[in-house]
Predict the structure of Germin-like protein subfamily 1 member 13.
Amino acid sequence: MRSVPKYLVTVLLFALACFLASASDPSPLQDFCVAINNPTSAVFVNGKFCMDPKVVTANDFFFPGLQIPGNTANRLGSNVTLVNVDKLPGLNTLGISLARIDFAPYGLNPPHTHPRGTEI
Ligand SMILES: *[C@@H]1O[C@H](CO)[C@@H](O)[C@H](O)[C@H]1NC(C)=O
């Protein structure tokens, strides 16, 4: 039996390693799922009910207020204005949130995590 060229084995092993090493979250099932607290919608995604796409408006993807400084007169000397799905329903299922952090001089942002989500 003829032997397989070494370079071909190397290329195949590299391709297999690349295939096995790729990992990601599953793709979203739909482009957006604007969160709504009203359970009349039948679709429940990511802990929230989805608003009927026919009634979604641009305002569901808008948050006014990031330009307003938070009051840093507190023990930590900082103030986080968090914009998550509860404040910006259009963020639902997108795996991202926003925050404005204001610091007084020597203010702190305590250690924290963002499990399975990204924060800007
Ligand atoms: C952050 O700032 C807002 C707006 O001034 C204020 O209502 C809120 O109490 C502040 N939070 C803290 C933890 O100081």
Summary: The domain at 6-119 is CATH 2.60.120.10 (Jelly Rolls). The beta strands are 35-36, 44-45, 48-50, 78-83, 96-103, 118-119. The two ends are 59 Å apart (CA to CA).
